[in-house]
């Protein structure tokens, strides 16, 4: 797990000074993947206070034979 600040620091050139705007980025934890195996994957997002929400950018589908709705990528 990495925060948004850590992800930005990884992309910066180490030979240049660090821009001040990177220090004001929130330090919230974000999960990400560099590789996703082929096939359908289901996911949801969790806010800091524990609220679960779905993204309108991805398909919202019923998870297998349950009544739970999740985002899906193929």
Task: Provide a concise account of the structure shown.
This protein is α+β, with helices and mostly antiparallel strands. 11% of the residues lie in helices and 27% in strands. It is built from 1 helix and 7 strands.
What string gives the helices and strands in order? EHEEEEEE
Q: Roughly how many Å is the radius of gyration? A: 17 Å
Whole-number average pLDDT?
80
Overall strand count: 7
Rounded to the nearest angstrom, the distance between the terminal CA atoms is: 23 Å
Widest β-sheet, arrangement of strands: 3-7-6
- Unreliable segments (pLDDT under 50, ≥5 consecutive)? none
How many structural units, i.e. domains?
2
* Biggest sheet layout: 3 strands, antiparallel
Number of distinct helices = 1
Which band does the percent of strand residues land in? 25-35%
Structural class: alpha+beta
